[in-house]
UniProtKB/TrEMBL annotation:
Rhodanese domain residues: 34-118
Pfam families (alphabetical): Rhodanese
An annotated Gene Ontology molecular function: thiosulfate-cyanide sulfurtransferase activity
Name by which UniProt lists this protein: Rhodanese domain-containing protein
CDD domains from the UniProt entry: RHOD
Amino acid sequence: MKTILIIAVLLVLTYAAITAWSKHKVSASLPQLVANGAIILDVRTEKEFSGAHIPGAVNISLGRIREDYRLLDSSKTYITCCSHGLRSVKVADILKEKGFKHVFNGGAWTDLQEALSVKQH
């Protein structure tokens, strides 16, 4: 029983380390993607977006993405963001299901904004 518990803990720690490394690797590449023309797709509601957003971001909410994805160019690169990072993951998955090849989750828009401003200065 103790051996199984140790193995389970090691697996969880390994998974957490790989996930953190992958997220850092993607996060570090986001400013370069934007510099190369990636479009920031803010998937919060119109009301949330109108309150504050990253300049130049396009707003299509999670609630509208299944219809409005047709307004997007599937050959372009998109970075999704929202308030906490949950909706942006869902929209990234939906776009990939619709045939978009270059979609990245940017997480919370405020974190993405910070990452972009730090890397641009």
